[in-house]
Amino acid sequence: MSTRQRPRLVYERWTDPVAGDILELSDIEVVKLDLSMPEERGWAALESAHGYQVATRTDVAGIEAGAQWLAGPELIKRCENLLAVCSAGAGYDVIDVEACTRAGIAVCNNSGPGAEAVAEHALGFMLDLAKKITVADRALRSGPLGDRLRLQGSQLFGKTLGVVGLGAIGGRLVELCAPFGMEVLVFDPYLDDVSADARGVRRVTLTELVERSDFVQVTCPLTAETQGLIGAEQFAAMKSTAFFITTARGPVHDEDALLQALETGSIAGAGLDVFHEEPPRQDNPLLRLENVVATPHTAGITVEAARDIAVATANQWQTLFAGFRPPRLLNPDVWPRYCDRFQDILGVRPTTSSHEDLTEVHT
């Protein structure tokens, strides 16, 4: 009879310390990965890990050769005992999902818990841009105001909202915009008409969405399908009065094409929480434009979201190492091989069922 091995989880940081508090109640060895230490110490921790809470690109930005701590082919090859990797939030571009699947590694994210924060931020961009709040604030602080009518804005009521990617964030944004009586168009290849009707939105092509929308909101993850999805052609097709807003990932849109559209007046403005390079350099030309409102990838950073994500993260690791199917498994095809590897490495075989509620121990 096989003896179960104690699982080892390596993490870079939690969004809130409550994750560590929760995991202390579990039979899981938790090890912190200090990116500032000599890399041999990091590899020593990871090469014996069964689970890895992946560092984000922002975490490794200031670390020399920091990309090695993302879940790519090099890390996967070196970490032979690795069973599962998880991203901190909804985005999972820090993980090579295909490479993990080939290696029999389960990939999870934490979509859902931070959706409220990001959706509210996206709505904030809409209101700010339409009402020219930031523009008016800058004008008021910079000197004599002059004619305030030049700060005339517009309203959200009755406008058309185009959402690219109707996941947890996009879905919540649609709910938040309901009081404004907006028509909502959605481009999402994974959304069917029945689900669209239930949410009161209409499925359209990307072309129709950018042509008709007053606000183009990008809330999809960064994948091979979505990289470069919004480029010069899409910006050229937008209304000159329309606003482009993204809380997704920078590479989903073409920054050079966006800059040109903003400088030429092809579109009215942009609300940007993400950039190709993060944090963006101070000389990024987008940051000098009056019709751009920008934040440094902080849409999901609220007290409430940080705690909710941390709780969900800890719960998911408990679920994984308890031998259940995790709630946010991104590569379900890996499950049979994952179960074989889990049994070989930890000594027990996972169940094929999901575990809905491990939260009672966290209250």
Automatic annotation (TrEMBL):
One of its GO terms (molecular function) is NAD binding. Keywords: Amino-acid biosynthesis, NAD, Oxidoreductase. One of its GO terms (biological process) is amino acid biosynthetic process. CDD domains: PGDH_4. Residues 123-299 form the D-isomer specific 2-hydroxyacid dehydrogenase NAD-binding domain. Belongs to the D-isomer specific 2-hydroxyacid dehydrogenase family. This is D-3-phosphoglycerate dehydrogenase. It comes from Mycolicibacterium duvalii.
